[in-house]
Amino acid sequence: MTNPLALCCFLLCAHAVRLTAGYLTVSTEPLAPVVIGDTVTLKCNFRTDGNLREIVWFRVAEGGSAKQKIFTYDAMYNTSYSHMEDNRRREDLIYQSTVRLPEVQMEDDGLYECHVGIYDRRSRDKVILASGSIVLTVIVPPKSISVVAANSPTPFSRYEAQNFTLVCIVAGAKPAPTVYFKRDGELIDVVPTPQSSPSGGEQKRPTGQEKGQGRIRAGLQRSPVLTSRDLDDTKLQKSLSPLEEEGKLARLGQDGPEQGQEQSSKSETLPTTEVIPETVVSREFPRWVQSSDPLYYFQHRQRAAGDGTTEVRAMLTWSLNPQLDNEALFSCEVNHPALSMPMQAEVTLAAPRGPKLFMSPSKAKVGDTVRITVQGFQLGPSATEVFPEPMFTWTRVGGRLLDGREKHDGRELVLERVPAELNGSMFRCTAQNPLGSTDTHTRLIVFNNPRLKKPFIATDTAVTCRSVTLTPMLLLLSFTCELT
After folding, report:
1. For residue 181, is pLDDT > 80?
2. Is the model's pTM score more than 0.70?
3. Looking at the structure, do residues 321 and 206 belong to the same domain, yes or no?
4. Which residues, at least 6 apart from 102, have a Cβ–Cβ distance to it below 8 Å?
């Protein structure tokens, strides 16, 4: 059985050894994310009852395999404690070492370590070491934000519905920002797609208060695209509404299989006669019905840049309705911890309204190179520019272009060395985007060029000598020739 007296002596000796050996504890204060360009102070607190030997700060790089010394304090050669604070409590010394990093940059992001050494009381030559670490996170606000139209430019179609996609590009941010869309100032409720990234940056969902104020509704009802064929394209056939379609399907289901089989048998026995109209105008264009309450689909993608930042591409897709979406204001907004307020970019959907054409030179002469360029548009009171970017197609009314082509695509039409035969020709410029199409005409007037010599026209010639005159005073040989 253990002797209580021996156990007490052992504990007293251990306590005495602890007191003589000294102790050292090191702690660091965590840092909140720091915006690039700000100044940050690293703080290291340590407590000891011994004598300080040194303080060394390291920046850990390459995943911990390398350390860069950024600050050193050696108590043997420094007698000033201006950068440290001490306080005695029960013969304990409490120190705080600070390191100031001005205007932090992306390369300052990472792990920092504070190493402290004190002298052992039992042996002056022995040093007790302890360390603590701090993680510095440098965040970067987005450098740029822009909204573009996917697959632009694209033509306008009045015969079938087409999807339209807005792409919001946010570059230069760390970490990835949160991106969401608004229409006319109201948050759009979206349907996320499987391709959307699950990390930060997804479409923000509206709060209850925003729902009460009235949000863009996008329920589970899909935009119907109904097709029907009409023998006369000039007569619009009325399509059934979705509710009428559902009622019709329900009535068919209530008839039962027996009634359906009876009707099919009757249709097989009775002869049918197809009525063929005398004139068929068009049967190739499907009819389509637009929904005033479309579904908005949201996709989110991230791509890491070489400088440590992230590029985010957020995509909003819906079935375009030119009657309702024309002049609609869409905005892409970004939330980021480095921003005090959201960052946004806005675009207004608008159909082109008559491009303004400029001809150079204004008075073209035969042989000149004429350029007809689109300079702008006749904009409405609320639109500032045409978005999305239109397509431009040039044609010549009643004939082909100068190079023999039927049409030319681009903002500029170049006619090289125009001949006199083009005088009075009418050229049409068609501008179109998914919201609409418009035509503008301009007439080319070609003037004579006095610098150009009239070309010699070679024809079959006959030489006829009219007379030959000989005088005794002067020998004169005269030939009078006529070209016929």
Report:
1. yes
2. no
3. yes
4. 39
